[in-house]
Amino acid sequence: NIARVLPAMDKIDEVLATNATETNYLPAIKAALAIGSKLLNHYYELTDVSDVYRIATILHPSYKLEYLRKANWPEKWIDEAVSIVKEEFLRSYAEMEAQEMSASTATNVKQLFSHLSDMVEMPKASIADELAAYLEQDRERVQDVLGWWKKKQVEFPRLSQMAIDFHCVPATSVDVERAFSQGRLLLSHIRNRLSAESTQSLLCLGAWFKAGLVQTNDILAASKLPELQKSEDFIELVESDSE
User: Can you spell out the DSSP letters for 166-195?
Assistant: First the structure.
């Protein structure tokens, strides 16, 4: 989870810094620890390039602002991190509910008048209160952060969507690199006519299958659908596999 990146780096830095001054270690080992600590600090500074790390950390119910204080962040840094969260929240998520409500009323005329009270523009203070209310609550020990925010969608309708979006960001590039490697296997020299949409769908299907979200029977059943068997990409797959 991306929210654990900063805490993990803090812990590693603590271990490196502590052992670098250990008198029982050989000079070569202490020098290696010091170099490792310096390199880690370099990558730690790079987290400032993206706001994702600070937003994800604050929007993790196990960390919030208390973790930043525990990590001895200066108050100026903490205030800046809070401002980043607020700005992103107000810019991208504050009006989310109003937009969804407009879409639902456009497709359901019978509910037009039942939503008149919701059409009143919500004051910015009320929107900001959603974030403030979350920060004021006590921290909780949470393992499944996505599941926690899913349960909080009624209490924090906008903030929960923001949290889910940011916590879905991969913490490392490993998954992305693996997807590229699988893409190379999928698009072989004898299978080069697949569309970009089909390639993306097949890679997604493969990831779901490995995660146990899709079963073999589901794939077999889908492959027998008439509309799929007429697809040019499906024919391309069958022909390339038979060669």
Answer: HHTS-SSSHHHHHHHHHHHHHS-TT-----
Note the pLDDT of residue 209.
83
d(CA 242, CA 82) in angstroms, rounded, equals: 57
Helix axes 174-186, 196-210, angle to 10 degrees: 120
219-228: average pLDDT: 76
Mean pLDDT of 20-31: 84
Angle at 94 between CA 89 and CA 100, to 5 degrees: 130
Sign for the CA dihedral angle at 203, 205, 210, 216 comes to negative
What 95-99 contacts at long range (C-beta under 8 Å, 24+ apart), as own/partner pairs, is: 96/157, 96/158, 96/161, 97/157, 97/158, 98/122
Cβ atoms of 3 and 60 within 8 Å: the answer is yes
Cβ(35)–Cβ(11) below 8 Å: no
Q: Is the pTM of this model over 0.85?
A: no
C-alpha to C-alpha distance for 86 and 80, rounded to whole angstroms: 10
Residue given tokens 């970009």 in the structure block = 196
